C-alpha cells in the first residue's frame, strides 16, 4: 500500500510522543513517503532525453555548454548548469543537417557540416571530462550517471550527409553514432519525409539498405520525420525495435509529424518506443512579432557582440510572448498519458526536442523537467515505471539493437 505525503503527515501528527520513543526514527510509512516524493524520485532515477539539438548552440560565438544560460535571454534550453538543476542525466545529442540538393555538391557540403557537428560534440566532452562522458552502449548510461557525469550518446537527424555511400554510416558509427533517422524536412536519397513530396513510395532502395546496415552496425533506427509509408517499411524491415525519438500522437492533433494510434500500436508490438515531442500538439498560432524579427535574425552573425546579444534577447522575448501554439505543460502530459494508456508504460519515453523548437508554456527549458516526474507519479505510476519512461525503455531498445548487431 502506498501512502500520500498528506496521509503520512496526518499519521505522524496523530502519533504520541511515547510511541515515537519506542519506534524507529524511520518508519515503513515514512520510508514509503520518501520513496514516492517527486523530487527524491527524480533525483534517484536515470533521466535521458532522446532528442537534444543543443550542439547547434556551439556555433554561437562565445556560447559554452558549461556556462549558465536562460531561454529568456538567448532562447537556448540546455546547458550543464541547467541539466544539473533540472536533474537531466543526459541523452542523445543530435547531429542535425538541413536538407539540400541531392547532388554531389550538396552531399559534400552536408557531410562536412555533419562532421563539424560531430567534432563539436566530441570536443565539448573532451574539454570537460569531469562533467560529460561519451556513451556507446546501453550499459554505459548508468555507469556514467553513477560517476556524477552527464551521458552523451550521439544521434543523427537526417541521413542526407551520408550521400549515396553507406560506408559513411559505418564511419559515423566508429566515431560514436548510436541513433539515426534517415530523413528530416524534405524527401532525400533515403526516404520520403512527412512534409516532402513522395518520391520513393516510402524508402528508396538505398534507404532499405540503410536499414539493414543500421541493424548490422548496432544503430537505433529513428523514424521521426519519416512519412507514414517510410515508417511502415522501416518497422517491417528492421530486425530490431525502432523508436520515434521526438514525435507525438495524431489523436491529440492531426499533424503530419504525428502518428495515428494504429501505427503506434504496431510500433509497440515490435518492441518500439515513442518519445513524446512538445511540438505539434495543437494548431499553430500567428506570430507577427516573431516574423517581423526574422530578417534581422538572418543577419545576426554579422553583428558586433553587443548588438548580437541585444538582438538575441529581443528574439527570445518575442518567442516567449508569441508561442508557436497554445500547447502548455498539461497538453504535453496529455500526449504522454494518451500514449501510456494506448501502448502501456513500456513503450513511451521523453524526447521534447530541446533547442530544436521544442518547449511549451510551463515547460520552457530543461530546469522544468522535474514537473514531468511529478505528473507521472500523480497519475499513479510507480517510481520504477517513471524510470522506464525517462530512460529504461530507450535503453531496452538499445540492448535489443546491440543483440541484433551481435548476431
From TrEMBL:
CDD domains: rDP_like (cd01301). Residues 1-20 form the signal peptide. The keyword Transcription does not apply. Pfam families: Peptidase_M19. InterPro entries: Metal_Hydrolase, Pept_M19. Keywords: Signal. The keyword Signal applies. This is Dipeptidase.
Amino acid at each position: 500500500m502506498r501512502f500520500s505525503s498528506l496521509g503520512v503527515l496526518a499519521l505522524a501528527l496523530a502519533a504520541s510522543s511515547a510511541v515515537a520513543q519506542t519506534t524507529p526514527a524511520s518508519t515503513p510509512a515514512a520510508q514509503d513517503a520518501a520513496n514516492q516524493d517527486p523530487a527524491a524520485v527524480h533525483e534517484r532515477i536515470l533521466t535521458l532525453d532522446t532528442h537534444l539539438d543543443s550542439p547547434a548552440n556551439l556555433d554561437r560565438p562565445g556560447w559554452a555548454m558549461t556556462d549558465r544560460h536562460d531561454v529568456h535571454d538567448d532562447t537556448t534550453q540546455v546547458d550543464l548548469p541547467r541539466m544539473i538543476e533540472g536533474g537531466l542525466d543526459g541523452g542523445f545529442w543530435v547531429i542535425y543537417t538541413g536538407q539540400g540538393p541531392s547532388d554531389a555538391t550538396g552531399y559534400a557540403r552536408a557531410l562536412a557540416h555533419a562532421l563539424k557537428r560531430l567534432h563539436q560534440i566530441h570536443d565539448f566532452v573532451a574539454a570537460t571530462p569531469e562533467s560529460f562522458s561519451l556513451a556507446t552502449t546501453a550499459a554505459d548510461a548508468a555507469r556514467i550517471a553513477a560517476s556524477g557525469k552527464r551521458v552523451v550518446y550521439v544521434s543523427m537527424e537526417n541521413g542526407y550527409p551520408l550521400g549515396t555511400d553507406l560506408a559513411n554510416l559505418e564511419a559515423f558509427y566508429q566515431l560514436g553514432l548510436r541513433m539515426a533517422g534517415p530523413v528530416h524536412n524534405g524527401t532525400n536519397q533515403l526516404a520520403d519525409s512527412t512534409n516532402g513530396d513522395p518520391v520513393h513510395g516510402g524508402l528508396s532502395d538505398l534507404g532499405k539498405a540503410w536499414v539493414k546496415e543500421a541493424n548490422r552496425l548496432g544503430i537505433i533506427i529513428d523514424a521521426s520525420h519519416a512519412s507514414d509509408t517510410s515508417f511502415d517499411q522501416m518497422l517491417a524491415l528492421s530486425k530490431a525495435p525502432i523508436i520515434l525519438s521526438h514525435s507525438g500522437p495524431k489523436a491529440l492533433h492531426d499533424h503530419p509529424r504525428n502518428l495515428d494510434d494504429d501505427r503506434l500500436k504496431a510500433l509497440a508490438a515490435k518492441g518500439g518506443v515513442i518519445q513524446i515531442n512538445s511540438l505539434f500538439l495543437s494548431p499553430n498560432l500567428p506570430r507577427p512579432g516573431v516574423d517581423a524579427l526574422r530578417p534581422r535574425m538572418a543577419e545576426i552573425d554579422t553583428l558586433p557582440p553587443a548588438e548580437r546579444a541585444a538582438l538575441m534577447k529581443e528574439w527570445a522575448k518575442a518567442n516567449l510572448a508569441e508561442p508557436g501554439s497554445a500547447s502548455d505543460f498539461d497538453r504535453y502530459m496529455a500526449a504522454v498519458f494518451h500514449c501510456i494508456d494506448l501502448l502501456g508504460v513500456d513503450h513511451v519515453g521523453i524526447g521534447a526536442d530541446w533547442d530544436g523548437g521544442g518547449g511549451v508554456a510551463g515547460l520552457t527549458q530543461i530546469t522544468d523537467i522535474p514537473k514531468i516526474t511529478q505528473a507521472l507519479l500523480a497519475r499513479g505510476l510507480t517510481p520504477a515505471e517513471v524510470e522506464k519512461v525517462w530512460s529504461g525503455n530507450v535503453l531496452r531498445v538499445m540492448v535489443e539493437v546491440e543483440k541484433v548487431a551481435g548476431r
